[in-house]
Design a protein that fits this description.
By secondary structure, this protein is an all-alpha fold. Helices cover 71% and strands 0% of the residues. The chain is elongated, with a radius of gyration of 14 Å.
Length: 100
Protein backbone atom coordinates (compact mmCIF):
# COMPACT_ATOMS: atom_id res chain seq x y z
CA UNK A 1 0.00 0.00 0.00
CA UNK A 2 2.91 2.35 0.69
CA UNK A 3 4.20 1.96 -2.88
CA UNK A 4 0.70 2.56 -4.25
CA UNK A 5 0.10 5.63 -2.08
CA UNK A 6 3.45 7.12 -3.05
CA UNK A 7 2.72 6.64 -6.75
CA UNK A 8 -0.74 8.16 -6.48
CA UNK A 9 0.51 11.12 -4.44
CA UNK A 10 3.35 11.76 -6.91
CA UNK A 11 0.86 11.78 -9.79
CA UNK A 12 -2.18 13.21 -8.01
CA UNK A 13 -2.37 16.21 -10.32
CA UNK A 14 -3.08 14.09 -13.39
CA UNK A 15 -5.78 11.68 -14.38
CA UNK A 16 -4.54 8.25 -13.33
CA UNK A 17 -5.68 5.21 -15.23
CA UNK A 18 -6.38 1.87 -13.64
CA UNK A 19 -4.21 0.15 -16.25
CA UNK A 20 -1.21 2.41 -15.62
CA UNK A 21 -1.36 1.85 -11.88
CA UNK A 22 -1.75 -1.91 -12.22
CA UNK A 23 1.24 -1.98 -14.55
CA UNK A 24 3.29 0.13 -12.13
CA UNK A 25 2.40 -2.28 -9.34
CA UNK A 26 3.52 -5.19 -11.53
CA UNK A 27 0.13 -6.86 -11.52
CA UNK A 28 -2.55 -7.74 -14.01
CA UNK A 29 -5.67 -5.60 -13.94
CA UNK A 30 -7.71 -8.48 -12.55
CA UNK A 31 -5.33 -9.38 -9.73
CA UNK A 32 -4.78 -5.72 -8.82
CA UNK A 33 -8.51 -5.08 -8.64
CA UNK A 34 -9.03 -8.19 -6.49
CA UNK A 35 -6.21 -7.18 -4.15
CA UNK A 36 -7.61 -3.66 -3.74
CA UNK A 37 -11.06 -5.03 -2.95
CA UNK A 38 -9.55 -7.42 -0.40
CA UNK A 39 -7.28 -4.89 1.31
CA UNK A 40 -9.35 -1.68 1.15
CA UNK A 41 -12.81 -2.99 0.25
CA UNK A 42 -13.06 -0.37 -2.54
CA UNK A 43 -12.10 -0.21 -6.17
CA UNK A 44 -9.02 1.71 -7.27
CA UNK A 45 -10.98 4.65 -8.69
CA UNK A 46 -12.76 5.18 -5.39
CA UNK A 47 -9.48 4.87 -3.54
CA UNK A 48 -7.81 7.46 -5.80
CA UNK A 49 -10.76 9.81 -5.30
CA UNK A 50 -10.50 9.40 -1.53
CA UNK A 51 -6.79 10.27 -1.60
CA UNK A 52 -7.42 13.26 -3.86
CA UNK A 53 -10.15 14.59 -1.59
CA UNK A 54 -7.97 14.07 1.48
CA UNK A 55 -5.27 16.20 -0.19
CA UNK A 56 -7.88 18.76 -1.27
CA UNK A 57 -9.22 19.04 2.30
CA UNK A 58 -5.69 19.72 3.51
CA UNK A 59 -5.06 22.35 0.84
CA UNK A 60 -8.42 24.04 1.43
CA UNK A 61 -7.91 24.16 5.18
CA UNK A 62 -4.54 25.94 4.69
CA UNK A 63 -6.36 28.75 2.85
CA UNK A 64 -3.31 29.39 0.66
CA UNK A 65 -4.96 28.57 -2.67
CA UNK A 66 -8.21 29.42 -4.39
CA UNK A 67 -10.64 26.53 -4.70
CA UNK A 68 -10.09 26.31 -8.46
CA UNK A 69 -6.34 26.01 -7.87
CA UNK A 70 -6.97 23.23 -5.38
CA UNK A 71 -9.12 21.43 -7.96
CA UNK A 72 -6.38 21.62 -10.58
CA UNK A 73 -3.68 20.57 -8.12
CA UNK A 74 -5.51 17.32 -7.35
CA UNK A 75 -6.18 16.49 -10.99
CA UNK A 76 -9.59 18.01 -11.76
CA UNK A 77 -9.78 20.25 -14.83
CA UNK A 78 -13.36 21.25 -14.07
CA UNK A 79 -13.75 23.11 -10.77
CA UNK A 80 -17.52 22.52 -10.82
CA UNK A 81 -17.08 18.77 -11.08
CA UNK A 82 -14.43 18.91 -8.36
CA UNK A 83 -16.93 20.66 -6.08
CA UNK A 84 -19.52 17.96 -6.79
CA UNK A 85 -17.09 15.14 -5.98
CA UNK A 86 -15.81 17.01 -2.91
CA UNK A 87 -19.36 17.28 -1.57
CA UNK A 88 -20.04 13.59 -2.24
CA UNK A 89 -16.95 12.61 -0.24
CA UNK A 90 -17.02 15.19 2.58
CA UNK A 91 -20.69 16.14 2.75
CA UNK A 92 -19.82 19.83 2.26
CA UNK A 93 -19.09 22.09 -0.66
CA UNK A 94 -15.48 23.34 -0.75
CA UNK A 95 -16.46 26.92 0.15
CA UNK A 96 -18.34 25.67 3.23
CA UNK A 97 -15.42 23.45 4.20
CA UNK A 98 -13.04 26.38 3.82
CA UNK A 99 -15.22 28.55 6.03
CA UNK A 100 -14.77 26.28 9.06
Amino acid sequence: MTKLNQYINQHIDISLSFETIAEYMGMSRTSFYAKMKTIKNVGINTYITQLKMKRAMDLISRKEMRRSEVAYSVGYNDAGYFSTVFKQVTGKMPRKYQGE
